[in-house]
Amino acid sequence: MQEHALLIFGLRFLVSRHWRCPFRDVRLEILCDLFAEFCTAFPDHANEENTEVWLLYHHRPNSYPGHSYSLLWTCDHFEDSDEKDIQQLAAFMSHLASLSNSRHCSLALLDGNREHIILELHDAVLEVIEHLKKHGAEGSGEDPGKAQ
Question: Which fold has domain 4-137?
Answer without folding.
Answer: Threonyl-tRNA Synthetase; Chain A, domain 2 (3.30.980)
